[in-house]
Amino acid sequence: MHRVDEISDAVRLRLLELVDQGAELIQLGDADDVAAQLVSRLPIANPWPEIVGPCYTSGSLQRELGVSRAALSKAVSDGRLLRLMTSDGQYVYPAFQVVDGALVRGLREVLAVLRLGAQDDPWTWAQWLNTPVPDRSAVVAEGAEPPRRRNIERLAEGDIEGIVRDAEIAAASWAA
């Protein structure tokens, strides 16, 4: 069996599972358009999916947070939610900013600082938040390497002041 057949069979099974759960696939639109969207999102020669990690669509994030589309737009405009535009013009929302069905506290403060260094570059902000870096706040034995953690993990754990401080350093270096 060719790899294409394996992939198409797996997609077909997942779609059938959705139908069994009551989803109406007609809402997805024309089959060719759906196929084009699926293929355009494949991480072939594109490092961003690995860097940013999984993302929500508007609809899936609305369901996760239990809010309306208007509430998502307001959260983006208020700087409480990071939204990325894909190369094909679709909006996605990195999943790392949602923990236990809520937006990570402190994200607004961090994004406001990161904007100072990279005015309109949410992909850079997402990379900064999600890339593992040495955790300078960790206590380690002399000569040992500090553990690597993602800034968003530290933020989700409540280290708002520390992450804002680190964001100020990053923003200053980007602006230089």
Assign the structural class, choosing from mainly alpha, mainly beta, alpha/beta, alpha+beta, or little secondary structure: mainly alpha
Q: Tell me the number of helical segments per DSSP (H or I, 4 or more residues long).
A: 9
- Tell me the series of helices and strands, N- to C-terminal: HHHEHHEEEEHHEEHH
What spatial form do the alpha-carbon principal axes imply?
A: globular
Tell me the distance between the termini.
54 Å
Q: Major sheet, described briefly?
A: 3 strands, antiparallel
Radius of gyration from CA coordinates = 19 Å
The helix content, as a percent range, equals: 40-55%
- Annotation, overall tally of beta strands: 7
User: Numbering strands along the chain, what is their spatial order in the largest sheet?
Assistant: 1-3-2
What is the mean predicted local confidence, pLDDT?
A: 88
**Low-confidence segments, ≥5 residues, pLDDT <50?**
none
**Which band does the percent of strand residues land in?**
5-15%
